[in-house]
Design brief:
Elements: E1 2-7, E2 20-25, H1 57-75, E3 80-81, E4 84-85, E5 87-90, E6 95-98, E7 101-103, H2 108-129, H3 132-137, H4 139-155, H5 158-166, H6 171-197, H7 202-210, H8 216-236, H9 238-244, H10 247-250, E8 261-264, H11 266-269, H12 294-297, H13 318-330, E9 337-340, H14 342-347, H15 351-356, H16 361-382, E10 387-393, E11 400-402, E12 406-417, E13 423-430, E14 436-437, E15 442-445, E16 449-460, E17 467-477, E18 484-493
Antiparallel strand pairs: 1-2, 3-4, 5-6, 6-7, 8-9, 10-12, 11-12, 12-16, 13-15, 13-17, 14-16, 17-18
Helix pairs in contact: 1-4, 2-16, 4-6, 4-8, 6-8
Length: 494
């Protein structure tokens, strides 16, 4: 047998649950038995975190964002626009509807730009004030907050929940757990149903669900998304942030000594220790921290912010609200735990100096790039012509002679009316003497629809030169002369 000694070396300090195990032979412990090897896990079993409920300014802000994000998420699929769903990503028809904007596969450029804007926004916010996204608007944070609220309403306070989990199974415990899991399941299912409602019209989806005619892929994604919401927000919780989310791992690259993060004022708080209410810290040789550990109890990831900045901190500021309440009860100034910067704590800056150092080269660069990209996207959308035209030559017949001594080329025309109204279009051709369209030149196309026509274009045999001759097609809307497209093509003279 062996004796195991658990230590935490410096190179594993960033992995809180990692353990290095050293084995010592029993012979060193006054035993004559030989040493044996034993396999043990290098990672301890996860201990469930029971966050304590907290109130305060940052908790109110967090719940405000919960309401705003969920009102947007659950409400958008039910909004109507021009007789259709206002926001719909119709993968079958290959059209994205965003209120009055209709995007086609050819508009994938806009999707790329939106992703770039999201990335630069994340970089900017993180550089200025740390993990604002994680603490207030990340879906993992939002749904965990909702699920924990349900848990607190059913099972009670933190101490009550800890006691309940430690009890053997009983009728009462089974009933409470069943009620909690049922409500979690209902929320998760509705979340998955809403998610699919962005890709299949939600009214159609609801009808198909209640008539048991739901398609296989809709069924899969409703329950798949719902199941992951249930598991992530209900059971995994902080494990998603600690071990699955890549943002926690590279956030430090975007921090600098002037980034606003949640900080513990070591100089003011240490040495920590208990004392009676109203006792001045200096009179007993202690700091302002009373070592109540409430800041640890309210933390959704279970860390102690007094140990310094840690990658596990999601920036929810629950510890700030909790500590401020303790400071109020003790009669001490607030701010022992607060949003501040490394430089501000070290140099004892006030709010004015902190805000003055927010504007720095990195922030200006991110803001400038973000502003340019957003302005470019806005200009592109405002000047976007709701018409797309593709003209393709008929490869089967390059050129042929027709009656009257003319030469004819055949083209395949594809017109996309991306507007939300039925329109009539007129087509003209130019670029060669005597060139004309022998087929119809007027087309009427339904809203957000593609029409395909075959064009026969003729020109005199003596027009242009032998081989390729550039010609130009113009498609223009009759009701709006500003809606038009020029397309270049090639006319072959034999």
């Amino acid at each position: 047998m062996t004796e195991q000694v658990t230590t935490k070396p410096a190179d594993l300090a960033s992995v809180p649950d990692a353990q290095v195990v050293k084995f010592m032979p029993r012979a060193e412990k006054s035993s004559d038995k030989p040493a044996e090897d034993e396999e043990v896990s290098l990672y301890e079993v996860r201990k469930k975190i029971h966050p304590r409920a907290v109130t305060g300014m940052f908790a109110n802000m967090r719940w405000t964002f919960v309401f705003l994000t969920q009102a947007l998420y659950y409400g958008l699929p039910w909004l109507q626009w021009n007789g259709r769903q206002a926001v719909l990503f119709d993968l079958v028809q290959r059209k994205f509807y965003i209120f009055g904007l209709v995007l086609w596969p050819q508009d994938v450029f806009y999707l790329a730009v939106i992703l770039i804007i999201s990335a630069f926004s994340l970089f900017l916010f993180t550089t200025v004030a740390g993990r604002l996204w994680c603490g207030y608007t990340c879906p993992q944070t939002v749904y965990t907050e909702i699920f924990m609220w349900v848990e607190q309403k059913i099972e009670g306070s933190r101490n009550q929940r800890i006691k309940l989990d430690g009890e053997p199974m009983s009728v009462r415990k089974f009933g409470l757990k069943a009620a909690k899991f049922s409500i979690w399941g209902a929320i998760a299912f509705w979340t998955g149903f809403t998610f699919v409602g962005y890709f299949t019209p939600i009214h159609v989806l609801g009808h198909e669900f209640f008539t048991w005619t739901l398609g296989p892929w809709e069924t899969f994604w409703v329950f798949f998304y719902g199941l992951f919401t249930y598991m992530f927000a209900g059971h995994l919780r902080e494990q998603v942030c600690l071990h699955m989310c890549p943002y926690a791992r590279f956030q430090g690259v975007m921090f600098d000594p002037d980034t606003l993060v949640i900080t513990y004022d070591v100089e003011r708080g240490e040495p920590r220790g208990a004392r009676k209410k109203g006792v001045e810290p200096a009179s007993i040789g202690k700091g302002s921290c009373v070592d109540c550990e409430i800041c640890v109890q309210v933390c959704p990831t279970g860390i102690d912010i007094r140990d310094g900045l840690q990658y596990q901190c999601i920036g929810c500021a629950a510890c700030i609200d909790a500590c401020d309440q303790v400071m109020d009860k003790m009669g001490y100034p607030r701010g022992l735990i607060r949003y501040s910067t490394e430089h501000a704590v070290k140099e004892h800056w006030g709010r004015k100096e902190v805000l003055g150092h927010i504007i720095r080269p990195r922030v200006l660069l991110y803001a400038a790039l973000l502003g340019i990209i957003v302005a470019g996207l806005g200009w592109s959308l405002l000047t976007r012509v709701p018409l797309m035209v593709n003209i393709i030559r008929d490869r089967a017949t390059l050129a042929r002679e027709v009656e009257g001594g003319n030469v004819e080329n055949v083209f395949r025309l594809q017109i996309m009316n991306t507007a939300e109204q039925r329109r009539k279009f007129v087509m003209t051709v130019g670029g060669m003497d005597g060139v004309s369209i022998a087929t119809t030149t007027r087309f009427e196309i339904d809203p957000a629809t593609t029409a395909t026509e075959v064009l026969r274009v003729q020109a005199p045999a003596d027009s242009g030169h032998r081989g390729s001759n550039p010609i130009y097609f113009e498609v223009r809307a009759e009701d709006n002369q500003d809606v038009f497209v020029h397309e270049k093509a090639v006319f072959i003279q034999p």
